[in-house]
Amino acid sequence: MVNGEYLKLTSHVSRLTIDHSQFTIHYLYPLKQQSFMSKPSLPQGTRDFSAAVVRKRNYIFQTIRTVFELYGFQPLETPAMENLDTLMGKYGEEGDKLIFKILNNGLDNPAKQQQTREGFDKLLAGRSSKDITERALRYDLTIPFARYVAMNHGQLTLPFKRYQIQPVWRADRPQKGRYREFYQCDADVVGSRSLLNEVELAAIYAEVFNRLRVPVSIHINNRKILAALAETCGGADKMMDITIAIDKLDKIGIDKVKEELTQRGLQPSQVAIIENYLSITGTETEKITALKKLIGHTASGTKGIEELQYVLQTPDSRLQTDFTLARGLNYYTGIIFEVKADGVQMGSIGGGGRYDDLTGLFGVPDVPGVGISFGVDRIYDVMEELGLFPEEVQTGTQVLFFNLGEIESRNAFSLMQELRARNVRCEIFHEQAKFDKQFKYADKKKIPWVVMIGSKEAEDNTCIVKNLATGEQSTLPQSELPGLAFS
Q1: In the CATH hierarchy, which top-level class contains the domain 395-483?
Q2: Which of 26, 50, 106, 174 sits between 20 and 30 A of 449, alpha carbons compared?
């Protein structure tokens, strides 16, 4: 609705967008055959990636992929869009608001105008309408994975271990480390309730960040403990109110969390119990003792503490309990993870947990699962800030052949093909040019080696090889060039 009235929908509508959280509708009409060129821009919360950035990101992807494969996980890909019914209701009240909905095609068809208006009326009244949207961009990789398992569980060998590296989309407010389009790298195991899976996933986190040289702390908690906290505060029905509020602790602080809990209907005595819970500190032994005293009288609390202690047997100092960790998604049921980079002002760079009946949402009950996710975009920002990318990551082309004439360039091209056959990345300058111009090209592209073949070298079957990093230069037979180590 714009200025209190609907804008007329016609077949000339070029684009239509909905701010679904506020139910604001915008129609955009094209200008009538006018020559108008706007300044090119990107949608807020998205980015272009230059070659240098892509190489760094690929370094992260390959490191994670290698470790996933090392632990026996198999690759999987799912579509960028899912049916809206697949996604809605799976991420809690806050998460559902951030799902990017896709308008149905054909809404500009005059025959559908009345149907479209009725659909908008439903949206403005706070109800969904398939007349307007039936699909959405995926919010994460876990729910699509659960949908895949539900559709294919009869053909899968259980436990099924899969990894997935694909982009996801969230209608979040863009800020440092938070984007509307970003990649997730997930590893999940379904079909097993063994806590060995949690131990292995914690080890995967440790191994990946060891290889990336990122200093981290791996935080764990248990949703059973949060359920016990809710029970202690008066009932299981309060669990989502409590977890949603606790999940904001790092962002808004304890006073605002207490305020939100009060607004959600909790009494001062109940808020005091939660504050006591959030203030538990000390060694792991001291924290577990304090936790037992607070919620150990409940069955879920006892079970949650036992599971925590099992995973904590892993001898890694980076693994630590964090009772402020809640992870506000509805589907977690057991151990939950969150990874934070040490010494960097950044949100979590990894997270996950156990979900023992996620496929039940799709009509296939009793398929337990557990998984973790790496936030590649935030990991990139952390590594960039700490200067952790190896220099060799930036090397694209290894050898540039100078173009010093038609005959000479043909000679160079033949040699270049021999190097390429040996997996040496090389290129030839696109035209005959002065030495200075070709050297500058190599310098700007950070190409470490150049090969020069002039008329004399072509006649003698030799070539000049120069290492631009050291300045060393030598002349050698062309037959020896493919045997050199260009590293």
Answers
A1: alpha beta
A2: 50
